[in-house]
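Sharing a chain and its predicted structure for anyone who wants a worked example. Both blocks are below, sequence first, tokens second.
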Amino acid sequence: MKTYKDFILEKERCWSGFKPVPGKKPYTPGSCVEEDVDLSESPAWTRKEGQNPEGGLNRKGIASYRAANPGSKLSMAVTTEPSKLKPGSKSYKRRKSFCARMGGVDGPMKKPNGEPTRKALALRKWNC
């Protein structure tokens, strides 16, 4: 009788017609993609060119997100200082809602090498 380890080792990591994604842990969501899909053709908002180095998405990233998700209302970050926003305004409410949601997300604020994470950059950009 085969052991579980032997069964896993003889079995392919991905289904037929799919190939493994380099750098992804085997058997996790997103670890396999269709063979004919080119990873460089993924939407800009998922790649570095659509992300702002100061946190959040840049205009190209927002445009690609809207194209990939029709009907979405994603818009630019509210970067105005909180003291200059009128209480009760649309921007004030968006900023307050974003800070409440993102502030509660689990995860570190710094990477092991000391650099801030994308979460920390986004919170800083929104003045949270």
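Comments welcome. Strands lie at 18-20, 32-34.
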